[in-house]
Amino acid sequence: MTLPPKPASRPDTVSLRRYLKLFRQDLLSAQPERLYRAWMAEFRTPFFRSYLVNQPDLVTTVLKERPLDFPKSGRISEGLRPLLGESVFLTNGAQWQRQRRIIDPAFEGGRLRETYPAMWAASQAALARLSERAGETVEIEEQTSHAAADIIFRTLFSIPIEDALAAQVFHEFRAYQRTQPILNLAAFLPLPRWMPRFFRADTRQAARRIRALITALCERRRAEIEAGTAPDDLATKIMTTADLETGETFSTGEMVDQVAIFFLAGHETSASALAWALYLVATHPEWQERLAEEAQLLGDAPAFSDIARLRLSRDVFRETLRLYPPVPMMVRETRCPERFRDRDVPKGAQIVLSPWHQHRHARLWDNPDGFDPSRWGTENGRSCAREAYMPFSAGPRVCTGAGFAMVEGVLMLSLVLRDLKLTALPGKVPEPVAFLTVRARDGIHLQVERR
User: Fold this and answer.
1) pLDDT, mean over the chain
2) Measured between alpha carbons, how far is 355 from 27 in angstroms, rounded to an integer?
3) Would you call 47 exposed, middle or buried from its count of C-beta atoms within 10 A (0-12, 13-18, 19+)?
4) Residues 348, 51: contact at Cβ < 8 Å?
């Protein structure tokens, strides 16, 4: 059976200059094949040491047992800061803890149920757009990007993507993704705080335009809150929630930072995962038919509780997140010297945790590169789900919107397959690449037909 596409690995040993060139082309194919079997690997540069860690108990130490000893790496934050500012995705310590105390209540279980009608409306709109293309070859990532952005705007600000301001934000984010913002000089060189970061001009300009648009959205909502006319959506909930310790709420500037990461995380990652899920079922028609049959229970107006009945769709979406985790690598930094696998790890070292490699690790998973949604019912699958599966990170810094993303992905996948049949094009195999998220280099093209 043909395996889902996977990037070719680089030669095991390359010069730093060659590695930087490969890194700029694609984060995944810049890594050596041995990482799919290694428990730990060390990389040395003239400026810092980096350790990729796959061993489950060490990953648990970093993410769950001692997360404050392994804060987010400032090197990776550098490239994203023009857009994300001091968002919860980049901060550490007391500042991060305060932000989570304000944000987390908006994403609790009951709130997720309240956002479901907006999610359903956006999903129906996405299905209608795709149905209009029946009989055509469709670049599916464009469709899932549009759908994911629409869901974010409807659930966060109660506006559809057809809203002029929302449409502007969406198009600017797509431009920002293409500027490769994470590939910044400060990710590799230890620059002092006072030194300019030499961001690409298009990165700075796109970030500036996006933040101006989000500021307009937040200021509009602030005025509605003060006037007592604000809808009861995620933005209102977050902007009116006071920190239990300080009694403070987010300022408009702080809210702009958070909305930027909500959109980047909730839009880019969801669009990536859904596009790969649709490709995988298109290349595995037996699973597509099983999901289409299951999806008939949705009816014309499914309730939120119906999502729990879509078990096959959930397993397919989980398997997609295993094979194509939207955020393929996370980087932490050691606050003090450590001892990992009888090896000294100095203070300030970069600890790379790679869902991409751990999810495909040959010493952990059965059939690691194969598409097999039934694995989640096996002993190996259940064990790995506990110890070696982290598409949304893990521990205190687990993605706030993880539950939101699982409902969104399962609903969209089922709804599309209920009404439409997808077929992969012979010889048109997408190539996974990673910059901000795992996308296809030249898109994912599928034939769409009505059922």
Assistant:
1) 89
2) 13
3) exposed
4) no
Please report which confidence band the pLDDT of residue 195 belongs to, taking 50, 70 and 90 as the band edges: very low
Residue 205 has a pLDDT of 83
pLDDT at 427: 87
Q: Pick the closest to residue 75 from 350, 347, 356 (CA basis).
A: 350
Closest CA to 359 of 333, 381, 332, 331: 381
Give the separation between CA 95 and CA 152, rounded to whole angstroms. 25
Query: To which residue do tokens 């933005």 refer?
Result: 235
**66, 48, 47: which is closest to 57 by C-alpha?**
66
pLDDT digits (tens, 9 = 90+) for 24-75: 777 888 888 999 999 999 988 767 788 999 999 999 999 999 999 999 987 7
Q: Is 128 helix (H, G, I), strand (E, B) or coil?
A: helix
SS3 category, 334? coil
Q: What is the DSSP letter of 71?
A: P
Helix (H) or strand (E) holding 448: strand 445-450
Q: Please, what sign has the CA dihedral across residues 181, 185, 189, 193?
A: negative
- CA-based torsion, 423, 428, 432, 437: positive or negative: negative
The yes-or-no verdict on residue 233 having pLDDT over 90 is yes
Rounded to 5°, angle at Cα 171 from 89 and 167 = 100
Give the model's pLDDT for residue 435: 73
Count of residues in the chain: 451
Q: Which residues pair with 42 in a beta bridge?
A: 51
pTM: 0.92
CA torsion 199-177-187-354 (nearest 10°) is 180
Nearest to 168 by CA among 123, 121, 217: 217
Q: Which residue has the tokens 């990536």?
A: 272
Residue type, 82: P
Q: Rounded to whole angstroms, how far apart are CA atoms 410 and 432?
A: 22
